Amino acid sequence: MLIKFYNALKNNIKNIILLLSIIPLTRLFILGLNDGLGANPIEFVERSTGLWSLVFLMITLSMTPLRQWSGINNFIQYRRMLGLLMFFYASLHIISYVWLDHWFDITEISKDIIKHPYVLVGFTAFLFTVPLAITSTKAMMKRLGGRWKLLHKLVYLIGILAVLHFLWLVKKDHTEPLIYASVFLSLIALRIAHKFRRRH
Amino acid sequence: MLIQKKSDIIPSEITTKENFENRRTFIKAAGASLLTASGLLTGLISNSAIAASSRQKINAYAKSKYGAEEKLTPYDDVTTYNNYYEFGTSKSDPAIESRLFKPNPWTVSIEGAVKKNKQISIEDILKIAPLEERIYRMRCVEGWSMVIPWIGFPLSKLIQWAEPTANAKFVEFISLNDDLMMPGQRLHVLDWPYIEGLRMDEAMNPLTIMAVGLYGEVLPNQNGAPMRLVVPWKYGFKGAKAIVKIRFTESMPRTSWMKAGPNEYGFYANVNPTVDHPRWTQSSERRIGGGLFTPRIKTQMFNGYTEQVGQLYTGMDLIKNF
């Protein structure tokens, strides 16, 4: 019985991840329909979708070190899906910014991007996620060959920009963005440490 | 033979009386806040029940001359979406963390360039001038705004009572510094106590008020009880809350936000759509109380109070003096 359950779980990990990953979005819908988004609902949606794209970015980036340090190769199977989930929440974040926050006012938006460093780095980070999402298919991987790996190194730059975006947005209390910064740096450190470990 | 056993406790480990008592108050406060927290968690006491229990009507006040024609921001938004770092940096913190705050008894000290240093209780302050309602727009530097029906009296009346000397060029407002009642002060996000200031003519302007209430009720703790400053043509952070000291000075006070970010927050902090902030757009604002699909509105010069206050700044470079 238990073994059967375990196998079912093992064979459905991707479905389980997908199911869990829509919880934050579902929550927003439920809160939105019940007048539960607080005094500034637009800010709530922007913050929530932004935070979840950052969380998914961190989870995506932890698949490689998990594989490296545990020796379990399966982790790498979930990386693409998690990366796309990051892109999904980042897109919602951008849509809420362009639509709900600024009502497609392109002049206001471009001024906001140029004048405010935190918006600039955030917007740049999003732009870099687009080519990664487009080239995430198996066919694209084949077509690009060696260049694919190089292109997808962009994820590290996206990580830096995303963390800066959060850090610079905060007025005074930097605790939360610094937590994300340290998670990001730890994930990078684990990769470097693994390289050294193999060499010796 | 008498063998004297040495005490196990070294003198430096003995708690002083003062420390002991501090700890006791702290433990009491912590216990009380735990009690409220657990009550909330189990749903025994609902959020609004706590708020309702402490809500208190103000009986006598004149209706506003300054009734803005705009729609009022709902009471719940005004009292749950607050920037009040003494109670935490999240906007929902003040409403929760200020529950144990005691705005009574309260004394305000008057100091500096005055005929005589004085102290005055909040009860006596309320006798200085009749209370009136003022419906004002409030624009936060972060790009959102509200319309709030304050109850208060002109600051000029309090200043007249304080009797400043000819040396008084500025007024400094100092807020309470007490990390037992204001748990957010345990974090040094700002240089406590909170300090704000006005130029003398700004302070004397009829629009500037000391607020002691809103929506016909006694000012809630999270909005700055028992008394706060309201300067409607300036960004919200100019409105010092829980004021304990008013000091008249010859030189310009260095405010908390000026110390925290000299490039971001100036002394004047007049609402000005043409002077941008390094983080937030100042040309437009989000009016709190709208839904998900309410667009931003244009921010007005001096928050729309140019007629009343524009003359205070004639000939001044408002880009330099932001």
Cα radius of gyration of chain A in angstroms: 19 Å
**Cα gyration radius of chain B (Å):** 22 Å
Query: What is the overall number of helices of chain B?
Result: 9
Give helix % range of chain A.
Answer: over 70%
Instruction: State which percent range the strand residues of chain B make up.
Output: 15-25%
Alpha-carbon distance between the termini of chain B? Answer: 82 Å
Q: CATH architecture of the largest domain in chain B, please?
A: Alpha-Beta Complex
**How many E strands of chain A?**
0
Largest sheet report of chain A: none
Tell me the β content of chain A. under 5%
Structure characteristics:
heterodimer, A: about 200 residues, mainly alpha, B: about 325 residues, alpha+beta, Sulfite Oxidase, Chain A, domain 2, 2 domains, seven-stranded mixed beta sheet, five-stranded mixed beta sheet, about 25% helix
Description:
- The complex is a heterodimer of chains A (200) and B (322).
- Chain A is mostly helical and 200 residues long.
- Chain A has one domain (2-199).
- Chain A is built from eleven helices and no strands.
- The longest helix of chain A is centred in the N-terminal third of the chain and has 30 residues, at 41-70.
- The relative contact order of chain A is 0.09.
- With 322 residues, chain B is an alpha+beta fold.
- Chain B folds into two domains: 17-54; 57-313, Sulfite Oxidase, Chain A, domain 2.
- Chain B contains nine helices and twelve strands.
- In chain B, strands 3, 4, 7, 8, 9, 11 and 12 form a seven-stranded mixed β-sheet that branches. In chain B, strands 2-1-10-5-6 form a five-stranded mixed β-sheet.
- The radius of gyration of chain B is 22 Å and the shape is globular.
- Classes of the chains: A mainly alpha (200), B alpha+beta (322).
- Chain A binds chain B through residues 32, 37-43, 45, 100-103, 108, 111-112, 115-118, 168-169, 171-173, and chain B through 76-77, 80-81, 85, 89, 91-92, 142, 144, 187, 189-190, 260, 276, 278-281, 283-284, 286, 288-289, 291-293, 295-296.
